[in-house]
Each structure stands twice: as C-alpha cells, then as structure tokens.
Task: inverse folding
C-alpha cells in the first residue's frame, strides 16, 4: 500500500469520525458521560472525537512526509489539527443552539400566560415544556422539576443559563422568587425585546446581503468600463500626440 493511499485512508477515517453524530462509548462509561457537564455547550463526546481525528491527521502527515521529517511533522500536524478542530462547533450543537434561540420568545410568552392564569412557576414551566417541545423544552422541564422537588430558584433557573438571551429571564425569575415581583410582565417584555432584536438583526443581514450582491457586479463592470471606455480614448489621444 502506497503512502498516498494510507494517508487518504487516515484522513477518510478522521473525517468519518468527526462527521458521525452521537457518542461512541462503552456502556460502562455512559453513566459517567451523562453525569459530566459539557463545556461551552459542546457534547461530552466531542473532545474524544477531536483527539482521535487530530491523531489520524498527524499519522497521515507523517506517512506522506516519511522518514525523520515525518516523525517530526506528524505530531506537529496533529497538535495543530487538534487546536483547529476544537474551535469548530459541532453541527448538532449549532442546530440545538439555533433552535433554543428561536423558541425563546414563544417560551417566554407561554410562560407569562401560564403565570397570569394563576399556575405556580414549577407547573407553568412543565406545562410550557410539554407544549413547546425541542431542546429548550428539555431545559424548562428541568427547571420545573427542580422547583417541584424543592430546589432554590437559582438552582432551577440555572438550567437556562447556557441559552443565549436568557440572562434577563433568569435574573427576573430569581428576583421574583426573592422579592415577590411580578414575573409575567418581565417575561412579556423579554419576548418583545427578543423579537425586536431579531427583526433588527434580520434587517441588518438583508442590507449586508444587498451590498455583497452588488460587489461582484462592480468587479465585473469596472474592468469592462476601463477596457471599453477609457482604453480607446487613451489610445486615440496617444496616437494623435505621437
């Protein structure tokens, strides 16, 4: 087997390892995986995938280079690949983050409606989680179950802390439990603000897209204008002068 084939096989194995979603662990380690806390929203199995993928990439570089230089270049390439791959957000994590962010205004409205109807906070959170569905519903379900089991507001609402945009919700919920302030009004204002921010971001993206669409047209029009408009004039003037 040639070096190129071995290197291609290693790179293919690394790509497959990183592309396949879900953990590949032994059953004996699964409980420890579930008990561990993901770092920065990443699944607990992602660092192991990155480590193995970077190792295979280093092996591929060592095989291609060969000799003593390959023994030096392989580990360096593996370390560099590990650093780069750890900065990549897994697709499952990105999809979950976007889904949670998209469902947050609706969840705030539903929670405010349940609280105005007279339901306690724990049952309101559970009802919203059951009606909403999705990853944000899982977090709201943990909030409701923690409150129902007698946990403090800080412990319960901490489950929503990793979701972008929930800082005000968590702060209002904790303050409401301590001071008796109305939580429904704060949730309604939060939902309105989140929708306004989303609308503003969408408008900014649309304006940016319009500018980016015009750039290729400008890059094509400017050389054509120079060749068709300016060059003949310059050639004619130089011909008359010379």
Result:
């Amino acid at each position: 087997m040639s070096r190129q084939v071995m290197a291609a096989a290693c790179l293919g194995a690394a790509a497959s390892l990183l592309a396949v979603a879900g953990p590949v662990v032994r059953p004996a380690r699964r409980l420890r995986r579930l008990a561990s806390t993901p770092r920065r929203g990443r699944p607990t199995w992602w660092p192991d995938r990155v480590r193995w993928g970077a190792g295979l990439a280093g092996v591929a570089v060592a095989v291609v280079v060969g000799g003593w230089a390959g023994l030096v270049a392989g580990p360096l390439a593996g370390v560099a690949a590990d650093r780069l791959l750890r900065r990549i957000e897994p697709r499952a994590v990105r999809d979950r983050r976007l889904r949670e962010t998209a469902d947050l205004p609706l969840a705030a409205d539903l929670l405010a409606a349940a609280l105005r109807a007279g339901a306690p906070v724990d049952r309101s959170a559970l009802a919203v989680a059951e009606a909403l569905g999705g990853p944000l519903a899982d977090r709201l379900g943990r909030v409701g179950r923690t409150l129902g089991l007698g946990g403090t507001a800080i412990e319960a609402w901490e489950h929503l802390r990793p979701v972008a945009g929930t800082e005000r919700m968590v702060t209002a919920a904790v303050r409401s439990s301590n001071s008796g302030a109305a939580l429904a009004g704060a949730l309604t204002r939060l939902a309105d603000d989140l929708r306004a921010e989303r609308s503003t971001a969408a408008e900014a993206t649309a304006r940016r897209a319009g500018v980016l669409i015009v750039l290729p047209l400008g890059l094509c029009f400017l050389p054509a204008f120079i060749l068709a408009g300016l060059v003949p004039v310059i050639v004619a003037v130089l011909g008359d002068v010379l």
Residues 21-41 have pLDDT under 50 and may be disordered. Residues 122 and 144 are 4 Å apart (CA to CA).
